[in-house]
Write a structure and sequence with these properties.
By secondary structure, the protein is mainly alpha-helical. Helices cover about 75% and strands about 0% of the residues. It has nine helices and no strands. Helix 1 crosses helix 6 and helix 4 packs parallel to helix 7. The protein starts with a helix and ends in a 6-residue tail after the last helix.
């Protein structure tokens, strides 16, 4: 059993690196098998196909990200919702998805969004990710720190700020870190000059 888990981890790590380097469509099952030094049977024992393997990788990345945020909240006992927003920006910066993998996800999304199972799994990942943002904003609304606009709309806007920054690959790390914090300030205070 332990050997099977190690083999699965090797396949996942190898596939992830190949996807990042070559892209989803250019990475073949044969290359993954060769680079992982395994057999076709071993790969297909763990994953039905390349699509299932890629989805598994992205699900694991999403789970790690969500779990690390929840663990951070449990460890810090932050009660002020606005402080949580700023800590979320820090967390987002330090634990952000690998940009290259995000690009590959976009490629995957446009190429394979065919099966009902794939669509369902992608929606589940998105819901879990979205829920984190929504819970932060709901807490702000409950403490009357935000207006009572539609929470789903606010969540989408808030997520869009962070996602937009995520895709700025030419931006330096220091600049990105500051942009995440600025995104919260702009979200909370707007951009109009107060008279």
């Amino acid at each position: 059993m332990e050997r099977s888990i190690e083999l699965k981890d090797t396949i996942v790590y190898t596939a992830k690196e190949l996807f990042k380097t070559k892209g989803y469509s250019e990475t073949t099952i044969g290359e993954i098998i060769k680079e992982a030094n395994t057999s076709k049977g071993n790969l297909y024992y763990h994953f039905d196909n390349k699509e299932a393997l890629f989805l598994y990788i992205f699900e694991q990345e999403t789970k790690y990200w969500v779990d690390s945020w929840k663990q951070y909240l449990n460890d810090t006992y932050i009660t002020d919702p606005i402080e949580k927003l700023y800590k979320f920006a820090d967390h987002h910066f330090y634990n952000n998805f690998d940009y290259t993998l995000l690009q590959r996800f976009e490629e995957f999304f446009t190429l394979t969004f065919k099966s009902i199972e794939t669509k369902k799994r992608m929606e589940e990942m998105n819901q879990e990710y979205t829920l984190m943002y929504k819970e932060l904003l709901l807490e702000c609304q409950e403490k009357e720190l935000l207006n009572n606009n539609n929470l789903d709309d606010l969540t989408l806007l808030f997520m869009s700020l962070f996602t937009g920054i995520d895709y700025q690959q030419a931006t330096s790390s220091d600049k990105k870190k500051n942009l995440y914090k600025l995104a919260i300030e702009v979200f909370l205070n707007g951009v109009l000059r107060k008279k």
